[in-house]
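We close this part of the discussion by returning to an individual protein. Part of our work consisted of pairing the sequence of a single chain with a tokenised description of its backbone. No coordinates are needed to read the tokens, only the vocabulary itself. The amino acid sequence and the backbone structure tokens for this protein are reproduced below:
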Amino acid sequence: MAKPEPSEEGPVGGRGIGEVLQLLQAEFADVTISKIRFLEAEGLVTPARTGSGYRKFSAADLDRLRYVLTAQRDQYLPLKVIKEHLGAIDRGLQPAAAGPPVAPSSLPQTPGQPVAEDFGAASTELRLTRDELLAAAGVPPELLAELENHGLVVAGGNHYGGDAIVIAQVAAELAAYGLEPRHLRAFRTAADREVGLIEQVTGPRRTEQTGELAALTVRLHTALVRSRLPRP
């Protein structure tokens, strides 16, 4: 067995490779320092380095190593596939017990009135491919294409944010009442105006105040719609 690198306390926090080896060997008896270094060379884990060049593994690095070793041991997956899985996890997808990571079928929703926390970064941190979005939302490609044509779902580069799941799911439910994507452009226009109003107050960068104002505008919008509906 290769001699573990000495532990060094420096400006970079984390565990040395020797300590990581001991932690992993409790679960993966055949793992070695050479194997950890190989996984690093293959780009599956990228520990920080101290000023002297010693590796320092974070808790996230340790989790990634466990994921790789588990996938190799239990699913016999090649490193290329495991690397693709890790890339998907980095884009916000959820690790699956077996098979590749998957997008959530829907995003958490808070019952009752929306609060500022609903407008945090959780839904936008997801970066889904088109196929992942279709699978997560459970909608046909034709509906997604219509939503994109009318500017209701917009991709950022080659990926979609988590809000696209909710938009696609709600659009599918509205379609059951005869409302097609072309009928929903008024919602996009109203949302654009509300965002513009919020940015007049907070500026273009997302802040805690942005979330609070967004929650208030949604509450106001909901109350206005409710007040104009015929009473039973």
Observations:
- The radius of gyration is 23 Å.
